[in-house]
Amino acid sequence: MTAALQVENLQTHFLSRGGIARAVDDVSFAVEQGQVMGLVGESGSGKSMTGYSIMGLIDAPGKVAGGRILLNGRDLRSLPAEEMRRIRGNRIAMIFQDPMMTLNPVLRIDTQMIEAVRAHQDVSKDAALAMARDALVRVGIAAPDERLNAYPHQFSGGMRQRVAIAIALLNKPDLIICDEPTTALDVTIQGQILFEMQKLCRESGTALIWITHDLSVVAGLADTVSVMYAGRIVESGDVARVLTHPRHPYTHGLIASAPSRNPRGQALRQIPGSTPSLLKLPAGCAFRDRCAYATIECAQTPETRIVDGRALRCFHPMADAPAGSIA
């Protein structure tokens, strides 16, 4: 398979009076055509900033300070702003956690969806409207003709999110980045959306990055998974292998803290401590102050290496013992 997206040594920094916050620090990964990659980690680990960096949506005082972002071999960072605008929403799309980042509150849904199609495709208004209607049906919206004539404020939060997802699917992009888009949806609709996303990837070759903290969603949706901590990917590889046999202590801690893994009646397990400030990261491995396996060697910055068929940033990988499944 061919990599639809290849990210190489991506760095995104935010300048502040307190110094430079390295929100994304030397991140590399690839997503092949038709493949789903899960990007997981705690809040503040850099997952969303990675997505925004790929989309070219980092504003001052932030900036993409280094690295390459290759979409089908073309470096997005080298493109002029106007060319990037033509690609955004057409060849790459992003579904945000808040649907109102996608929807215009003063325009009807049909107007917004027709514009999203005709901005990138030379089709008639009627053809664009038919595509919009079909997209709404695919995300589980009943009475699509009635909904097309409505305004965003006439929808529930979950319904607005489904419309935002439908808009992202309209032009069948090469890459879709999903920033926890199903958090506000009920389980039944979430399952329907995940099924449609998988179907789209398999049939059209669209690559998908699913940003989430929900490991159970990643276990059922993704082909590969990358685990982020303090702006860096600490472990990545085949989703089944990583989630059942984690080698990085942080990955193991995330899985162990899932409520489904906790014995009934006992206190929830958790990773000790808290994520360090990006302005005051400890020297060496950023996880070492919370890690039971840390030694003096961890004061040095670990390089990414291949261990047991996955990329790993750790001086002391855990034993390859089953950690159980995520349900």
What tags apply to this protein structure?
single chain, about 325 residues, 10 helices, nucleotide-binding, Methionine ABC transporter ATP-binding protein, membrane
Distance between the termini: 29 Å
Low-confidence stretches: none
Major sheet summary line: 8 strands, mixed
Percent of residues in β-strands: 15-25%
How many strands appear in the DSSP assignment? 12
Major sheet strand order: 6-7-8-3-9-10-12-11
- Overall mean pLDDT score? 90
Number of helices: 10
Structural class: alpha/beta
Give the C-alpha Rg: 20 Å
**Helix-strand topology string:** EEEHEEHEHHHHEHEHEEHHEE
Name the shape in a single word: globular
Helix proportion range: 25-40%
Gist?
This protein is an alpha/beta fold and 327 residues long. It contains ten helices and twelve strands. The model has no long low-confidence stretch (mean pLDDT 90).
Write up what this structure looks like.
- By secondary structure, this protein is α/β, with parallel strands linked by helices.
- The protein has helices at 47-55, 81-87, 109-118, 125-138, 144-148, 157-169, 187-204, 215-221, 239-244, 249-256, and strands at residues 3-16, 19-32, 36-40, 62-71, 74-75, 92-95, 175-179, 207-212, 224-229, 232-238, 305-307, 310-312.
- The strands form two sheets. The protein has an eight-stranded mixed β-sheet with strand order 6-7-8-3-9-10-12-11, sandwiched between helices. Strands 2-1-4-5 form a four-stranded antiparallel β-sheet.
- The two termini are 29 Å apart.
- The mean pLDDT is 90.
